[in-house]
Amino acid sequence: MRCRMVAARLVHALADRGYTEFTGVPCSMLKGIFEVLENSALDGRVRYFPAPREDTALGVASGLTVAGRGSVVLMQNSGLGYGLNVLTSFNLIYGVHLPLVVSWRGFDENDAVEHEVIGRELVTLLNVLGLPWTILDCSEVQLSVDRWLGHLDEHTSVLIVRDEV
Where are the domains of the chain? Predict the structure, then answer.
């Protein structure tokens, strides 16, 4: 399946569910999503706020969420470390639940060396933090989104992307 098609389907599925504000730090595995957000913006239905770091993206999305806007954060798994303080000292404490799209760099040990540790331990880290996660099934985007967003009433939830979209 072409990466742009999956990316567009994912952004459309989120926008259809009221998640129209996107922020994050670019990652090559998520490049199709960033291209959709930067180039088409779905005819004004969505907005994208680039962030210099993942903790900044979490702060922007948290503010939008508290203001009643459906927001989504995009990041690679190695950037999750930058966001841990925000997640544990704000989002988890105050119940500001965000949908996170996290690329799973190094999950197959076939990536740059700097992704080995987080690639091996991503799911363990999410479980320790009590963050439910769903792996994106590129052939079942709608179903993946439904499963992922189904946890948001009670938790920040993570959509893990293992393949380039």
Answer: 3-96+114-161
